[in-house]
Amino acid sequence: MGEVKLHGFWYSPFALRVNWSLKLKGIEYENIEEDRFNKTPQLLQYNPVYKRIPVLVHAGKPISESMLIIEYIDQVWPQHPLLPSHPYHRALARFWVKYSDDLTEGVRALYRSKNVEERKKAIEHILEHLRVVEDQCFGKENKFFGGESVNVVDLAFGSIIKYITVLEDIFEEQILEAQKFPRLYSWFNIFKSEPIIAEILPDQDQMVAFVKPLREQILASS
Q1: Which DSSP state fits 33?
Q2: Other beta carbons less than 10 A from residue 13's beta carbon
Q3: What is the CA radius of gyration of the chain?
Q4: Of 50, 20, 15, the residue nearest 33 (C-alpha)
Q5: CA 54: distance to chain centroid?
Q6: Which residue has the higher pLDDT, 218 or 11?
């Protein structure tokens, strides 16, 4: 099938969801850790437009953007399907993946917030989106968004909610509270306990210790 390589950051939710996809599929690959401030020439060559991770290289051909990568992986390696086969359910999955991108905007705003007002606005955006997921995505007693197995929607929300928990610790703010979001809170605990998910889920303390000074460095240079 050709050699598979993944360029990413270990702490990135976007690289994490691709790593999970490859692991769930049982695909052997080389994980290439990039440096945000000193990206390899290969990464810049493979993604000359955005110059960012993640980038999957399969048989020498690069694919960028995490969800496009996951769809490619799902088409090339059919084992453990990540997207539904039925066109309607596939469209629904893509809708909720897009909604996770909207949630990501609030998370990015919180990460880059410079004062209390910006932080409050970002958290309100996040809470609003989490409420929609809580109310709209758990009507049935499914274990995951995809039913009884992890699918692309689980990967999309799981990666960004993991990052939300890191920001909770950095800002000492509770966002994903069990009382406010009981079904979403329960789902995330089940999701992150899945063996393959847990195997490469970054350690919480290590992420907080790394992301906090990284955030300060990025804000100082902006």
Answers
A1: E
A2: 22
A3: 17
A4: 15
A5: 11
A6: 11
Token pair of 77, please? 């390696």
Please report which confidence band the pLDDT of residue 139 belongs to, taking 50, 70 and 90 as the band edges.
Answer: low
Percent of the chain with pLDDT over 90: 88
Residue 112 has pLDDT above 90, yes or no: yes
Rounded Cα distance, 134 and 183, in Å: 6
> Residue 220, Cβ neighbours under 10 Å: how many?
7
Which residue matches tokens 């110059």? 51
Q: For 78, which DSSP code? A: -
Alpha carbon 32 to its chain centroid, in Å, reads 18
**Cβ-proximal residues to 171 (8 Å cutoff; 6+ apart), any chain:** 110, 119
Rounded to whole angstroms, how far apart are CA atoms 97 and 103?
A: 10
Q: Omega of the bond prior to 54 within 30 degrees of 0, cis? A: yes
Q: Give the three-state DSSP class for 66.
A: helix
- Residue whose token pair is 């909207």: 102
Q: Which of 29, 58, 34 is nearest to 44 (CA)?
A: 34
Angle between helices 116-136 and 182-193 (to 10 degrees): 90
Cα distance between residue 23 and residue 77, in whole Å: 12
The 3-state DSSP class for residue 50 equals coil
